[in-house]
């Protein structure tokens, strides 16, 4: 008898919690995604502006790596035997450095993890909204500028050309 009362109380508590979660889901669904994206992107851009060291570090690393690639693979030969291997090595190094350079985008996500969990549980915004804004604000404001700088420096110094001759 006591077990039945405990199990029924647990079911009631569980149902009440599920009801509250469903209510929060309805409240979240009632808001427009555009409004969520607008407010979360404002906050993310403010964070980026208040922390200019991240942007500056990205630019400095891109310039240094571009110069390193440029000096190591300076004026590649246009012959078949060593030229192709050197060009492939330069392209490989460029791709790897650009790929590994994006690892720094994980650091803000790790720092904001507690805030993210709190705000999604409190139904301030959806998970998709958070990640869309992080990708847009982080990629556009931080990664593209450094990638363009790296590519311009490395491309010009290595002598890569569009034509085959």
From TrEMBL:
Residues 37-163 form the ABC-2 type transporter transmembrane domain. InterPro entries: ABC2_TM, ABCG_transporters. It is found in: Membrane. It is a multi-pass membrane protein. Its main location: membrane. The chain crosses the membrane at residues 53-76, 88-110, 131-155. GO terms for cellular component: plasma membrane. The keyword Magnesium does not apply. Keywords: Membrane, Transmembrane, Transmembrane helix, Transport. It comes from the Eukaryota. GO terms for molecular function: ABC-type transporter activity. It holds the Pfam family ABC2_membrane. PANTHER family: ABC TRANSPORTER G FAMILY MEMBER 28, PROTEIN BROWN. This is ABC-2 type transporter transmembrane domain-containing protein.
């Amino acid at each position: 008898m006591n077990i039945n009362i405990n199990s029924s109380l647990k079911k009631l508590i569980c149902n009440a919690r599920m009801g509250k979660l469903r209510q929060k889901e309805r409240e979240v669904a009632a808001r427009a995604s555009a409004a969520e994206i607008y407010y979360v992107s404002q906050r993310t851009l403010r964070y980026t502006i208040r922390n200019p060291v991240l942007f500056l570090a990205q630019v400095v690393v891109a310039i240094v790596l571009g110069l390193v690639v440029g000096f190591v693979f300076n004026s590649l030969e246009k012959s078949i035997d060593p030229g192709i291997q050197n060009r492939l090595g330069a392209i490989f190094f460029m791709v790897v450095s650009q790929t590994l350079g994006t690892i720094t985008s994980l650091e803000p996500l790790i720092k904001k993890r507690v805030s993210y969990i709190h705000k999604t549980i409190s139904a301030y915004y959806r998970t998709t909204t958070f990640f869309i804004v992080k990708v847009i604000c982080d990629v556009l404001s931080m990664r593209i500028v450094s990638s363009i700088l790296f590519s311009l420096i490395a491309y010009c110094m290595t002598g890569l050309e569009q034509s085959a001759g």
